[in-house]
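User: Write out your own:

AI:
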Amino acid sequence: MKVGFVSLGCSKNLVDSEEIMGMLKAAGHVLVGDPRKAEAIIINTCGFINPAKEESISTIFEMTRYAQKIIVVGCLAQRYEQELREQIPEISAVVPIRDYDKLPQILKELLEQDQVVPYCKADRTVSGNPWSAYVKISDGCSNHCAFCAIPLIRGEQVSKTIEDVKEEVQFLADKGAVEITLIAQDTTKFGLDNYGQLKMAELLRALEDVENVHWIRLLYMYPDEIEPELLQAMKESTKVVPYFDIPMQHANNRLLKKMNRRGTKEDVLALTKTIREMFPKSVLRTTIIVGFPTETDEDFEELIDFIQEVRWDRLGAFVFSQEEDTPAANLEMDVDEQVAQARLDRLMSIQKQISLENNKQRIGSTLEVLVEEKEAFANRYHGRSFGDAPDDVDGAVIFTSEKPIELGTFVNVKITDATQYDLIGICE
């Protein structure tokens, strides 16, 4: 049968989607990109914050225009299974995360398919560029930040084994992936639940001998778990890029404690200094929440000072969203919405200037670039350096070349100009 698929939310959801699509193909279904040609449509939803929930609900109703059989999976299905069943009768099936292995049987029943092939975990359909793939090394989260619903949706952290991760990386490399991005709710906590100790450094060393992988990138590194052994393993690796994604959330220690975040502003200042000493060409990224309950003007000014002191290369920020059933759901929303938005606007304005100044420092340097796109009517290409995460998370390197370049390959680009987010150059 012809099955359409819509994947919403984060890269961790995308990995789930790719594994589900692999399962469906193994079961004899045909995946179609045009929803108008689908007999059934599966929607992998996000339920992290209110805008994501609204997008998921909107997508469900939109897809009912194209197919009579709508199957909802993902975080929204996990958290609001009963509510979705009762309130949206157009949905044919709601499948929570724990029941993904039942999807072929559910489709069989919905579409009267005769034969169901057992799902093999190694089967995975990479939905994006074949040269770049995500590997989810654990699911769930045990940090229990006050603002976050992930533990309610996904449960406590469950790490894969080092052997299983390495097998998956090798599988993707054999399919053509030259860049592997390791993801989890907290990558640095990998192994603590099943090995009894942090194992990220050991995992990176195990991945060193996987053939054909050129770049390995870590996302979502919790600051107080970036230990000296992990930094040393990254420094010794020929594949791991010096890209440090360290979601900070805030800089005021009182608010960090209220958010149930471990560590202090001073710890992170010391950590970023150490990283830049060990990795002079490192790229540092963070995520910030503004408008968290009880955030004062003085707290926000402290955050601004912190951003200007660290000078993060990449920074994402958003206004606090109160999520039901989380500890922060019980806090009084005492920061006016307009005030919070004004703080966000000011923060991002300052960060744009920092980003521009940091990018200008790269003018004159030569960067290795993974080529991902060619403009239709120009001899110009778009790619990413080690400092740019996949899927438009960061900026791009835009460059010209006198000779054709195969997409998915690496070239050296001389940087000649810079904007707030992108670098401009010429292929050497």
